[in-house]
Amino acid sequence: MSMKDYQAIYGIIGNPLGHSLSPLMHNAAFKELGVDAVYKAFPLEADDVQDFFKKLKEKACPIFGLNVTVPYKEVVLEYVDALAPLAEKIGAVNTIVVTQDRRLIGYNTDAPGFLAHLTELQFNLTDKRVAILGAGGSARAILAILCLIPERPQSIRIYNRTSSRVDQLIADLQSRIDLSIVETVEHVEDLNIELADLLINTTSMGLKEEDPCLVEESFFHPDMLVYDLIYNPPETLLLKMAKERGTQTSNGLGMLYYQGVLSLQHWANLQLDDRVKEKMWEAIHKRTAK
Ligand code: NDP
Fold first, then answer.
1. Model confidence at 288, in pLDDT bands (50, 70, 90)?
2. What residues does 183 pair with on adjacent strands?
């Protein structure tokens, strides 16, 4: 990360941002790297987005990198000057690099972050049967990357409460990606979770402790991985029920961590060493551990 004669600012835009762990994670990294930089939360109302990006382009603006979260991951496509190929395919940006001449380059690190965590969990996707709950922003990144990688699964079934949303997602993605392994289903039961090797929850069901589980307990089995993108609470009812049936489970903290590492690597244009990565992991793990 180049030294500047003023403090460089990085941050996250989204709404709401109250529970974001990204400031903790990136400020821990800056401290370990010994750079004069700070990572801030920028909660933005929809009406303020255009003005924010206008200022971001100004020469004197001290912001050199951003993360983007709900509900702006697709909105920002119109504000960036260039898209990395993967972000273009996915149609969503969660990381923006601001170059020295203040060009904005959009990346997607959610998708490779998710894959990196699956690799850490030693889950090999080749020929696997995948079931996805949800069709929002995070499902877009996950569905796209699963169809793009050479080691793509055998099949992907996807269910969303609002069926028009999943139809829109498929219609948009299939203009750029081969979705021949994907099938949309009308009911959770049709996800065939009993036969799946991997179930991914990309919905926000489970964020609140009192949220019910979208899946019937009898569907879980020991030969599968149940992955919930939610990391706070660290164990949703979905994960708890799956675990009780002897299923391997994971929450989404690893995905958050890997996307953060990849974002910082884009901003700094370097590979982070293990020491810095450990500090990033500790910062978010400490905050969410029970
Ligand atoms: P979106 O708002 O884009 O999508 C929300 C999804 O949840 C939609 O599919 C929506 O369905 C579904 N949903 C909401 N309420 C219900 C309900 N009562 N019953 C059934 N389905 C419901 O959010 P994101 O995709 O961006 O994020 C989803 C979750 O993933 C969040 O909890 C977020 O914290 C987590 N996440 C974690 C990441 C990580 O790094 N670990 C990264 C990104 C997200 P419908 O269309 O019918 O409304």
1. confident
2. 157
Residue 162 Cα: closest atom of ligand 1: 47
Whether 119 and 247 map to the same domain: the answer is yes
Residue nearest to atom 3 of ligand 1 (CA): 136
Per-residue pLDDT, 4: 61
Specify the residue with its C-alpha closest to ligand 1, atom 17: 205
How many CB atoms are closer than 10 A to CB 235?
A: 16
Range of the domain at 16: 8-108+254-288
| 236 and 182 in a common domain | yes
Number of domains the chain is built from: 2
> Which tokens sit at 245?
């049936």
pLDDT band at 6 (very low <50, low <70, confident <90, very high): confident
Distance 129 CA to ligand 1 centre (A): 21
The C-alpha angle with vertex 28 and arms to 26 and 31, in degrees rounded to 5, equals 110
**Pocket residues: Cβ below 6 A from ligand 1:** 70, 110, 134-139, 160-162, 165, 202-205, 207, 214, 229-231, 252, 255-256, 259
Which residue is closest in CA terms to ligand 1's atom 9?
Answer: 134
CA of 166 to the centre of ligand 1 (A): 12
pLDDT at 75: 97
Query: In what order do the strands lie in the sheet containing 155-159?
Result: 182-185, 155-159, 129-133, 198-201, 225-228, 248-250
Same domain, 176 and 234: yes
Give 272-283 pLDDT, tens digit per residue.
999 999 999 999
Statement to judge: residues 215 and 196 lie in one domain: yes
- Is 27 domain-assigned? yes
What confidence tens digit (pLDDT) does each residue in 223-275 have?
A: 999 999 999 999 999 999 999 999 999 999 999 999 999 999 999 999 999 99
Q: Which residue, chain included where needed, has tokens 């903290």?
A: 253
